[in-house]
Design goal:
It is a single chain. The chain has 424 residues and is α+β, with helices and mostly antiparallel strands. The chain has an eight-stranded mixed beta sheet with strand order 3-7-8-15-12-11-9-10, sandwiched between helices. The protein has a five-stranded mixed beta sheet with strand order 17-16-18-19-20, sandwiched between helices. The longest helix has 20 residues. The termini are close together.
Amino acid sequence: MSRIPHEDPRPQGHRDVNHDMAVFATDPLVGSGLPLWLPAGAVVRHELERLARDVARADGCVGVYSPVLAKRALFERSGHWATFSDDMFPPMQVGGDELVLRPANCPHHALIYAADRHSYRELPIRLNELAPMFRSERSGVVSGLRRVRQITLDDTHVFCRPDQAVEEVARALRSALHVFEVLGLPVDHVRLSRRGEDAAYLGSGEQWRDAEQALQEAAAQVDLARRGLELRDAEGEAAFYGPKLDVQWRDPRGHEESVATVQLDFTQPERFDLTYDAADGSRRRVVMVHRGTVGAMERVVAALLEQHRGRLPLWLAPVQVCVLPVGPDQDGPARALVDDLLAAGLRARLEVDGSLGARVRSSRHRRDAVIAVLGATEVAAGEVQVTDIAGGFRGAVAREQLVAELSRSYAARSPRVPWPAPGY
């Protein structure tokens, strides 16, 4: 196994990585803070959305869809208009109605829950949607994928009994921590975001104390210390409707940001009169848990590009295998290998134009996960010369083994491909 060429280890911003990978583009005709997802970015986003749906399904969530617009009255009812209107786009006058692009998805999900009557025996009900929402960010603060005007959120709202709230928060926090382990994003700590002195927070002091206590109990159930994580208090960082547990990531430059969140909400159930039939026949108020397990697609992709400097794990890589024949005599075997990789569900690319060195440099520049070179020697031996820069591997691999190992690693969302030892 020969050495892998050195790559610059210095931190890179996601916009710098994007110059090489072509994940997204911007255009003044579209507007600031409204990125266009290019084919490579669409692949990464699709894989993240698939992960989000798999995690939601495993946690018992059911999918819903809701419109991005609603009457202004909906957000007046939810409390968003009074506390958040400066960050919302102005209403549109349509047929006598004032329609607003939503700044959050919870009011729509509250109405989906309210569309039917529910028994205590049905709860919890977990509604999941990969849903766009909109923030009227100023032109001077939008930046790449990190600060945008349309945000696509892996958004789940859980409607449960009060006695189920702690377990639901703990379930959501476990899933969020699992997701970021799969993504290779190291969690710095979990933040207990409490209310501050601002009058904009809704609800009574007793409600806030009970909710914050429930979040502390949920964090204790997850046993953060066993995971090497600390629970840190942060006064004034709560949502206006309730406290939250924020999963904090620190980028390679040392900047901290929230990448996933679990929030406890006692305000929306009151404002929308969200209830269930209790065992004694009375109507009782549900508790609402907001969970963003994978988080916002835009922010997570930015974090991934920076954490991995573009060298994403195989399952996330836009091009999983770039196949390079040394010369025209190997075009046929190279095309056959690409066909086998595609048939196995892998994203493979064949490049034949230009010198081999130029094609290798192009593939490295593009951050392809695996480079597979076929020369006369490899074709005769039924092998492929493989370079996996992120995995630190370069060596000959049997053709059939290459397809099998990559297929298994992709299906398992493995952080690294388990390549054979030299002299296998």
